[in-house]
Write a structure and sequence with these properties.
Helix content is 24%, strand content 27%. It is α+β, with helices and mostly antiparallel strands and 103 residues long. The strands form two sheets. A three-stranded antiparallel β-sheet has the order 2-3-4, with no helix packed on it. A two-stranded antiparallel sheet has the order 1-5. Strand 3 and strand 4 (40-45) form a beta hairpin. It is globular, with a radius of gyration of 19 Å.
Length: 103
């Protein structure tokens, strides 16, 4: 896969924002931070498989660091989903085996 960054216009700014708080529960990611105007911003994303925070790295748009991007064709997400499918299959097998205890 060839990852690429797609610039988004989310309706809020991350420029000079405080460090964000993340919470992921039941597929809903909640991100909260205080923006440059000292206003609290709360954003929720549905159907989230996982979240990864990265301070800096070799990939992505280095020309701007105050914008919001969607990483398209994410290698990391693909690996996560494959691993999750493998774990679910193992868990299902273990659950099935544990249900068959007794005579």
């Amino acid at each position: 896969m060839s990852e690429r960054a797609k610039l988004l216009q989310p309706g809020f700014s991350t420029a000079d924002a405080e460090y964000p708080d993340f919470a992921l529960s039941n597929g809903v990611l909640r991100v909260e931070f205080t923006d440059w105007r000292e206003q609290r911003v709360v954003v929720e994303f549905a159907e989230v498989a996982g979240v990864r925070w990265q301070e800096a790295g070799p990939h992505g748009p280095e020309e701007r660091d105050d914008s919001v991007y969607e990483i398209m064709d994410s290698d990391w997400l693909e690996e996560l989903l494959v691993a999750r499918a493998r774990v679910k299959k193992t868990t299902d097998t273990l659950s099935y085996a544990s249900m068959r205890t007794g005579p």
